[in-house]
Amino acid sequence: AFLSYGLTQSRISPICATCADQFMKALNALLADRSHHLRIQNTAYLFWTKENVGFSIAGWFESPDPAQVRELINSARTGKHDPSIDAVPFYALALTANNARAVVRDWIDTTLGNAKQALGHWFARQAIVGPYGEEPTPLGLYALAASTVRDPKKELTSLTVTTLLRSALAGTPLPDRLLQQAVRRCQVEQEVTRPRAALLKLVLSTQTPTMEDFMLELQSDHPEAAYHCGRLLAVLEIIQRRAADGQLNTTLVDRFYGAASSTPATVFGALIRGAQPHVSKLRKNKRGLAVRLEQEMEDVLAALPAFPPILTVKQQAVFALGYYHQRAFNRAQAQAAAQQRRAGANTTSDTDDSETLFDQESVS
Known about the structure:
It is built from 16 helices and four strands. The protein is α+β, with helices and mostly antiparallel strands.
């Protein structure tokens, strides 16, 4: 590392003592100012502009404010510019320590206007409804990166965070590697968390920018079969839960999520057949509920001319989003019904059955 073009030791890139003293003081000043740096694990991310314009980037990654993020997204989409600051040069640096040396992991040299525009699109691409159907809220850098591993304190690498940061500030597409990691965590944990769903949508949207406004919430007309396979698994899970009154130690998702998300054709036929006894059980005591469950299952199946034999990693990501959206939709409906009951609304017996259509355990 210290030999090149016949030069040795520090002669490869000589720096005078005065210059070295100046940039070390500048680095220490940035590291001492919370508005100019962000620390995640063993990596420090520094941000600064050539002129003091009163705009801090660091806070957007640590604890983004929803109102400010909405304004930033609107500015990015409309191409709104602030000529007084947008042309100012902007810099970002990622540093890690290696014994007595500082290692530069990444370097970004752009303008503040370009960084703000890329950041606005980055937040728009990660937007997704909450697990109970709440309005989308922005996620910080750490939450997205941590969703790719089991134990972030031990397993999260600086490469993951640096890759997300470069995409946010330079608008670069995110690699399939992050998609694979997030999909793998969904399969291992049999769960699609909001940060993981947001990351999946973010990766897909950076690779296909026209998808930015898609998949914020449930899309019954989504064009991909993988998406509806995910929805169907969520519906079948509801049927199982309602037939068992929520008294389950292991759900079909716990047992079949991995196979359903990778080889749908091998499992969904058996899962649908297994749901019929549950529907029959519900039909005896809650006929209205059974009818609605069957109708919901048929609506999803209508969008599936055939079950795909194998899903690619990208299709598995879409599957996870379909599953997440369907559950979020169901939970939102359950909460609305519960609020209506608490408010003392007059409801018919059919409405009461409709409330039990959804996953009451997740609502409580």
